Amino acid sequence: MNKLYINTPQNVKFEYKLASLGARVLAFAIDYGIIMTYFIFTFLLLAFSGFLDRKDNWLIMGMVSFASLPAIFYTLILETAMEGQTIGKRLMKIKVVKIDGTRATFYQYFIRWISNTVDVFLSMGGLGILSIILTKNSQRLGDLAADTTVINVKEDLKLKMTLFEEITAEHQVTYPEVVGLTDQDVNQIKEIFEVAKSRKNYGIVVALATRVEILLGIKSQFAPEDFIPLIIQDHYYLYRDK
Question: Where do the domains of the chain lie?
Fold first, then answer.
């Protein structure tokens, strides 16, 4: 599987698994199955209501166009609201991110959505598939224009679930200084730590622990492999109900 290599501000390199072509095609099929179901349901609803029997063609066209908006903007709306995922992408556990691994912006989601016209519809999906196969970071034309790609998030989801399972109501916060970290900081720490574990690279864990100590202005009494999970758990515990 292709990978997206990132060099973080902490000068620690880690990697994301890029979404496979199969996963992206299946996600697309699911999403457009939902869109087509919506179109059919809407048409049948208008037909059975007798609205389509009216003689005012402009009114009919206007109503049909208005009713079609949720389907037309489906991808843009959901990727924006669900942080780079649609229903299909969530089921396939993939998501859109910037090429540096961070969350994409609305503008980037918009560019990808507009590019569907060329990537998918005008070329019957051919250009999009060809671009994904040939580009280094598995980017379709819309991704190239928006500076985004699609990654596999299965490992991230597993890590998040594991961390929450380990936190109990009696958890004692060891480092209250974690309030100075943002959700984005902790997510990045979590991702780097998980990659380091999967690659069995203790050097990355040590470098990460050192950087976190500097950020929080503390000196850990724990081993780096114990210190980082504790920081993540403390943050989750403090903000679990917020």
Answer: 3-152, 158-239
